[in-house]
Amino acid sequence: MSEVSVALGALRAAADHLDGTADRLSEISWPTIEPAALAGAAVSVVATSARAAAYTGDVIAEMRGWAVAARSIAAEFERAELRNAHGLPVS
Predict the structure, then answer these.
(1) How far, in Å, CA of 65 to CA of 24, rounded?
(2) What span, in angstroms and rounded, lies between the C-alpha atoms of 51 and 73?
(3) How far apart are CA 33 and CA 35, in angstroms?
(4) For the chain, what is the mean pLDDT?
(5) C-alpha of 43 from chain center
(6) How far apart are CA 29 and CA 74, in angstroms?
């Protein structure tokens, strides 16, 4: 049987870093692009800030979700270790 080691401090630090990055991304003021102002331009059909904002919002939500999951996993590992520390027989 092999042993698994998880650096809980590093996992929590990564979660904190992702939360901070998500916060900074959410504070960015994305420029508004008005497709009508580009009438006749080849890029007028793709130049929409709404799509970029929606995509960025999805990325931010996923980053925050990952951070929540990472913290939950770290807490579960700690609880499991505490439960098992006193319950395993010593040979």
Answers:
(1) 16
(2) 33
(3) 6
(4) 83
(5) 31
(6) 34
Tell me which residue has tokens 């698994």. Answer: 4
What whole-number distance in Å separates Cα of residue 23 and Cα of residue 70?
Answer: 17
Question: What are the tens digits of pLDDT across the range 59-74?
Answer: 999 999 999 999 999 9
Give pTM, 2 decimals.
Answer: 0.70
The ranges assigned to domains in the chain are 9-82
Q: For 75, phi and psi rounded to 5 degrees?
A: -65, -40
Q: How far apart are CA 82 and CA 86, in angstroms?
A: 7
N-term to C-term CA, the chain: 16
